[in-house]
Amino acid sequence: MSRAGNLFLPFFDPNGLLEGSKCAKIKDSRMPSEFTIRRFRLSDMDRILKIEQAVFPRDAYDRNLFAEYFHTSGDLFLVLVRRGNICGYMLTCICPRPEIVSIAVQPAERRKGAARLLLKSTIRRLRRRRVGRLNLMVRVKNRPALKFYVKHGFVKIRVVRRYYDDGTDGFLMSKYL
């Protein structure tokens, strides 16, 4: 489910690709030392909810949905830590299809490379799983997000009319990995 969608698809991995995955132990030596990316922990929940509310005040995900994603997304639910504080997260699912569910960086930490680091880490994890394509939905009027995704190789596939709960259209975007 992408941002503000209203259908949650339960986790299903018919090929068993996720079982025993070593992706959670990836250490990226190319990442600036002030940043650390790690798996989401339930103890991160309160901080993630604050970021979520600050970034998506109209359609913030709730605690229960994040808890469900914690159980279904495994090492594709990432948090970015800078100077000991969680400043962002990225949530990706691969079943039923590889999709970025949500990415958020606290407003004070934007334009410092946080979203780029989260996206690159996620793409590396997906490539290790031999995932060939990644999709996402973004509001058609969200110019900063559109610019970010295009810069990182995503292309617009089509407009999905009235995708969001408030009736706003979304772009389905995709990137071959």
What does this entry show, briefly?
By secondary structure, this protein is α+β, with helices and mostly antiparallel strands. The model is unreliable at 4-29 (pLDDT under 50).
Strand content: 25-35%
What is the spatial order of strands in the main beta sheet?
1-2-3-4
Q: What does the radius of gyration come to? A: 15 Å
What is the rounded distance between the termini? 21 Å
Task: Write the element-wise H/E pattern from the N-terminal end onward.
Answer: EHHEEEHEHEE
Helix fraction, binned, reads: 25-40%
Helix tally equals 4
Q: Secondary structure elements and their pairing?
A:
Elements: E1 35-39, H1 45-55, H2 63-73, E2 77-82, E3 85-93, E4 99-105, H3 114-128, E5 133-139, H4 143-151, E6 155-160, E7 170-176
Antiparallel strand pairs: 1-2, 2-3, 3-4, 5-7, 6-7
